[in-house]
Design a protein that fits this description.
- By secondary structure, this protein is an alpha+beta fold.
- The protein has a domain of 147 residues: Immunoglobulin-like (Sandwich).
- Helix content is 24%, strand content 46%.
- Strands 1, 2, 3, 4, 5, 6, 7, 8 and 9 form a nine-stranded antiparallel β-sheet that branches.
- It is elongated.
Length: 231
């Protein structure tokens, strides 16, 4: 509580009056903000078409899940494996190059194809075997269709004949040098369209094999080394 004016000195009273006159007038208080109105959007009703689309999508998702589970169960029960391809034997009968760098050759080889599956039969619809030297095609042979029961093997005798195949001079010279050094390297590539049959279904795929074959010089060239891979 302040000191009453009658107990204060005249100078103190005058200073207070001057200070009160120098203070700026109080600003009026701003009015309180108006209450915010919340506008509610009307709720859209779900149409029958949207319900039908949702039901179809849900059913399709369930179908995909069931199909995936069935395929997984069949895969685990069948355990499919690709056939194996290997060269059991080969013979280089002749290699002849005449002018200007025309290649003539004769080679036979024995291929062993095995079906390692115990629950799948294989049908080879088409098969093509090609002979290459330094990535240059030398001969090609088509094989007739054949079938293989589960766990069986089949031996194929393939005769590759090259007749007047034009080679670049550097490739022809490389082939001559390999014959002279008693080391001829060929590449055999094959493509098989395989149909796998099991129980009530089947599926088809292409199988490709590549074999690197090293033979001694003709006329009695035999296999010195080989390496085959399948994909």
């Amino acid at each position: 509580m302040g000191t009453p004016y009658h107990f204060q000195s005249p100078r103190t009273i005058m200073n207070k009056i001057i200070n009160m006159k120098q203070q700026p007038p109080a600003l009026p208080q701003p009015p309180p903000p108006a209450p915010t109105k919340i506008i509610l959007q009307p709720r859209h009703r779900t149409t029958p078409a949207m319900w039908c689309a949702a039901i179809v999508c849900f059913a399709f998702s369930i179908l995909l899940i069931v199909a995936g589970v069935v395929i997984l169960i069949v895969f685990l029960a069948v355990k499919p494996r690709a056939p194996s391809f290997d060269l059991a034997n080969a013979s280089l009968n002749s290699v002849y190059i005449d002018s200007p760098a025309y290649f003539n050759g004769d080679m036979t080889f024995v291929a062993n194809i095995s079906n390692p599956n115990q629950k799948i039969d294989m049908v080879f619809r088409s098969a093509t075997v090609e002979l290459f030297f330094k990535d240059r095609p030398m001969a090609s042979q088509a094989l007739p269709p054949f079938a293989q029961r589960r766990g069986q093997s089949r031996v194929l005798n393939v005769h590759m004949v090259s007749s007047r195949v034009l080679l670049p001079p550097e490739v022809a010279m490389e082939l001559v040098n390999q014959v002279r050094s008693n080391r001829v390297v060929y590449t055999i590539r094959s493509a098989f369209k395989v149909e796998a049959r099991f129980w009530f279904g089947h599926y088809s795929y292409w199988m490709y094999t590549i074999c690197e074959l090293e033979l001694t010089a003709p006329p009695c060239g035999v296999v010195a080394a080989r390496r085959c891979r399948t994909k």
